[in-house]
């Protein structure tokens, strides 16, 4: 008798676990703002009368918060299951995240929705050209600064060389004071003068 009861309980638990298997379709969306998105929550047992609850998280491992209906988010019945279909209208960037359906404590695998900003080719090319122009302008300014620095350095070197140039005329005695002997500038040489017509001793 005990084994019969245990077997019946095990069969009931297995039946419940199989009945509560959940899947979601699709598993991923990558869309631009303004699109409409349907997410389906499917069960292995379509006779369940328990309503589906929907939750949103920033990513798969983040905290899940229950979401309700509003002007853009609606829940629809599908295959006799209440709220089995989630429909989001006019997507915005804030709608990005992972959406989970749950029923009786059993979670679906989740559907990730990524809302991507629209890409404007014209603006992208304009920004690229502006960046290229700024790079060229910075290069020119750097070259001008380097050239000015080199010219300044060359001028300073020339100025320093001109301070040490040798004078063209030899002025060794310029500025020297002449010492005087007594009151005269030169020694009196009259004693050594010879008379007119006298021959020199060496002649």
Tag the structure with descriptive keywords.
203 residues, six-stranded mixed beta sheet, four-stranded antiparallel beta sheet, 10 strands, 30% helix
Write the layout of secondary structure elements.
Layout: H1 2-19, E1 22-25, E2 28-31, E3 37-43, E4 53-57, E5 65-66, E6 73-78, E7 81-88, E8 97-103, E9 106-107, E10 111-115, H2 121-163
Parallel strand pairs: 2-10
Antiparallel strand pairs: 1-3, 3-7, 4-5, 4-8, 6-7, 8-9, 8-10
Task: Explain what this protein looks like in three dimensions.
The structure is a single chain. The protein is of the alpha+beta class. Strands 2, 4, 5, 8, 9 and 10 form a 6-stranded mixed sheet that branches. Strands 1-3-7-6 form a 4-stranded antiparallel sheet, with no helix packed on it.
């Amino acid at each position: 008798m005990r084994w019969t009861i245990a077997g019946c309980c095990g069969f009931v638990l297995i039946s419940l676990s199989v009945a509560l298997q959940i899947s979601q379709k699709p598993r991923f969306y990558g869309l631009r703002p303004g699109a409409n998105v349907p997410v389906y929550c499917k069960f292995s047992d379509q006779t369940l009368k328990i309503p589906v609850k929907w939750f949103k998280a920033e990513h798969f491992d983040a905290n899940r918060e229950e979401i309700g209906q509003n002007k853009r988010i609606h829940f629809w019945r599908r295959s006799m299951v209440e709220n089995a279909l989630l429909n989001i209208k006019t997507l915005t960037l804030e709608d990005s995240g992972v959406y989970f359906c749950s029923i009786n404590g059993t979670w679906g695998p989740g559907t990730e929705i990524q809302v991507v900003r629209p890409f404007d080719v014209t603006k992208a090319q304009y920004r690229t050209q502006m960046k290229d122009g700024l790079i060229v302008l910075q290069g020119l300014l750097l070259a001008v600064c380097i050239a000015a620095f080199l010219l300044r350095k060359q001028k300073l070197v020339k100025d320093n060389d001109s301070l040490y140039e040798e004078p063209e005329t030899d002025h060794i005695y310029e500025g020297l004071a002449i010492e005087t002997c007594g009151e005269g500038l030169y020694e009196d040489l009259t004693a050594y003068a010879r008379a007119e017509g006298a021959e020199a001793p060496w002649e």
